[in-house]
């Protein structure tokens, strides 16, 4: 079966920057799944899957605008330290370069700590990978027909997909 609208694709990936450094990867034997044709992935990446089959591997290099966005130098804000959430519950100590979650009106957002004051912390709300051209190395594990329920929900269920 080929990747087309309303198929569920399971794949593993490695994400690298232009220097070839590994930024992110699926764990061995833990592919992720998405429902093709429902904006489950970055559109430019999803387009690369079209027509491919299980066992295919390919790499896709995406410009920042197609990946994690351009950097916005105005997207640096001072926020109360108590609005930040760290890797450990109740984290109070912040250092520049740490990644934290910031509670915003649109939900939680990943931010990078720039400067630390007594009560206020300066954070950069750009995605940590914004401004980077990145390469995805993809291995397609399997392709199957989506269920009616998956199409209705707009995402993949089961292994590597959403669990309700
Ligand atoms: Zn669902």
Automatic annotation (TrEMBL):
Q: Which domain of life is it from?
A: Bacteria
Q: Which Gene3D superfamilies match?
A: 2.40.10.330, 3.10.50.40
What reaction does this catalyse? [protein]-peptidylproline (omega=180) = [protein]-peptidylproline (omega=0)
Task: Return the InterPro entries for the record.
Answer: PPIase_dom_sf, PPIase_FKBP_dom, SlpA/SlyD-like_ins_sf
- Compartment(s): Cytoplasm
Q: What is its EC number?
A: 5.2.1.8
| Gene Ontology terms, MF aspect | isomerase activity
Q: Where are the transmembrane segments?
A: none
Which keywords has UniProt assigned to this entry? Chaperone, Cytoplasm, Isomerase, Rotamase
Q: Which family does it belong to?
A: Belongs to the FKBP-type PPIase family.
- What does the function comment of this entry state? Also involved in hydrogenase metallocenter assembly, probably by participating in the nickel insertion step. This function in hydrogenase biosynthesis requires chaperone activity and the presence of the metal-binding domain, but not PPIase activity.
Q: What is this protein called?
A: peptidylprolyl isomerase
What is the organism of origin for this protein?
A: Neptunomonas phycophila
């Amino acid at each position: 079966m080929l990747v087309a609208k309303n198929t569920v694709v399971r794949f593993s990936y490695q994400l690298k920057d232009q220097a070839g450094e590994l930024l992110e990867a699926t764990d061995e034997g833990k592919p992720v799944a998405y429902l093709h044709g429902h904006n489950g992935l970055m559109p430019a990446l999803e387009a690369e899957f079209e027509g491919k089959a299980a066992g295919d591997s390919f790499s896709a290099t995406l410009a920042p605008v197609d990946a994690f966005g351009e950097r916005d130098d105005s997207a640096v804000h001072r926020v109360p330290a108590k609005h930040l959430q760290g890797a450990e519950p109740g984290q109070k100590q912040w250092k520049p370069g740490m990644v934290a979650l910031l509670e915003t009106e649109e939900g939680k957002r990943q931010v990078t700590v720039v400067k630390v004051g007594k009560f206020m912390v300066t954070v950069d709300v750009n995605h940590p990978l914004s401004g980077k051209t990145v390469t995805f190395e993809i291995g397609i594990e399997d392709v199957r027909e989506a269920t009616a329920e998956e199409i209705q929900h707009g995402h993949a269920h089961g292994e590597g997909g959403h669990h309700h």
